């Protein structure tokens, strides 16, 4: 039997993210978002609204880097990739992360930012849903490899260990499906989900090809995700 | 006097993009999106829903590459960049575009895709709003430079000219403000906007820090954008 479909409105998503932001700020205080595209683009952009940092009394946007990964999705002219294989469509652009750091550094942040862009940062990986967890675990593992490569370039041992300690990874998903996962969240990686759901079919508003108002209206008769 | 504020709901944006998609497909038929982040992330993800391509009877998602550019926005620890300066926060990851092409190529697409990722493609640059046009013109110019660099690597002259001809750029914005622009859309670049607006303050739903339902309710009493 097909799992039940739960329709979600844009405002549902907006509110779920809004409600999660204070905990994310309090427990993790991210200063870089990595959005997993396409699904993470919308949540990351919304979350940014609620996670502005303040510096010298001015509100600052947290930068978003996008990575494109595909698991279920189709790649242009390729056969569907089934199973656990994750294919990179885009990865972090370290040339601009570095440019960004060189441009952006203020004296007090200099030592924090000068090593390749990831070191010393509190990096929040954002996606819409944690289904089998495959893409999330892949992303964290690849980021850890990138961080380790950047750490190797730091010649001062004390500084390298300070940066290793200061660099943090966390995950935020709008929905976490409570089901067996293909991988574990690596140790030391904080995990935030706005809503935990049973293993239902989540019909996201941005996937609605028909009348979006009707999608929202049908949603009213949905069982609430929390009560499923 | 501050310009009037026009509140927009997520469904307004969804419907505006939905209504634009058939014309974009008919007149341009994009096969690669480049989303200008943060503003272009949400429109690009929504547009993808309505622009699926069909190949061998299967629906295919159009890949999205993200670029991060900042004009008005703040960069982490940097002073606000005022004026016409555009700062790259992220650019296209050509290593994965190429990987993508090598992985993705089917025999009939081989010659179309093998040269660096942009050649032979119909590239749609997506953003939320065309205000002064600075960021859009910057993006198109930089992409044209990248395309020219990739063309220089094609040794066969006839093939190079064929690819030059086949590579197309276009722009899609949800809102185009009818006002003097700091730059012109370069010749040969198609331009699509979902809604043309006067020079008003567009309050996007993803920027709403308060109650999103209230934002939507207040919107009902808005003058309609089309009637302003």
From TrEMBL, chains A, B:
Q: Which CDD domains match?
A: PRTases_typeI
The UniProt record lists the keyword Transferase: yes
Against InterPro entries, the record matches this protein to:
PRTase-like, PRTase_dom
Q: Name one GO molecular function term.
A: hypoxanthine phosphoribosyltransferase activity
Keyword annotations of the record:
Glycosyltransferase, Transferase
Sorted alphabetically, the Gene Ontology BP terms of this entry are:
GMP salvage; hypoxanthine metabolic process; IMP salvage; XMP salvage
GO CC aspect terms: cytoplasm
Question: Which PANTHER family would you find in this protein's record?
Answer: HYPOXANTHINE PHOSPHORIBOSYLTRANSFERASE, HYPOXANTHINE-GUANINE PHOSPHORIBOSYLTRANSFERASE
What's the protein called, per UniProt? Xanthine phosphoribosyltransferase 1
Species: Vanrija pseudolonga
Q: What is the lineage of its organism?
A: Eukaryota, Fungi, Dikarya, Basidiomycota, Agaricomycotina
């Amino acid at each position: 039997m097909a799992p039940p479909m739960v329709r979600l409105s844009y405002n549902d998503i907006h509110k779920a993210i809004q409600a999660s932001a204070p905990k994310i700020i309090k427990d993790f205080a991210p200063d870089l978002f990595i959005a997993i595209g396409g699904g993470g683009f919308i949540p990351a952009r919304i979350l940014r609204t609620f996670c502005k940092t303040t510096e010298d009394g001015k509100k600052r946007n947290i930068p978003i880097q996008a990575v494109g990964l595909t698991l279920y999705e189709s790649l242009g002219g390729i056969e569907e990739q089934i199973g656990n294989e994750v294919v990179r469509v885009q990865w972090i652009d370290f040339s601009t992360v570095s440019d960004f750091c060189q441009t952006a550094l203020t004296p007090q942040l200099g030592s924090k930012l000068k090593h390749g862009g990831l070191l010393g940062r509190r990096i929040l990986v954002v996606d819409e849903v944690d289904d089998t967890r495959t893409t999330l675990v892949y992303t964290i593992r690849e980021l850890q490899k990138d961080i380790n490569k950047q750490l190797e370039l730091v010649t001062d041992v004390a500084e390298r260990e300070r940066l290793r300690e200061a660099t943090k990874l966390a995950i935020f998903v709008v929905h976490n499906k409570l089901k067996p996962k293909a991988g574990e969240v690596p140790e030391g990686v904080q995990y935030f989900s706005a809503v935990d759901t049973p293993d239902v079919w989540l019909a996201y508003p941005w996937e609605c090809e028909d009348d979006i108002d009707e999608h929202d209206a049908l949603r009213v008769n949905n069982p609430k995700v929390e009560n499923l």
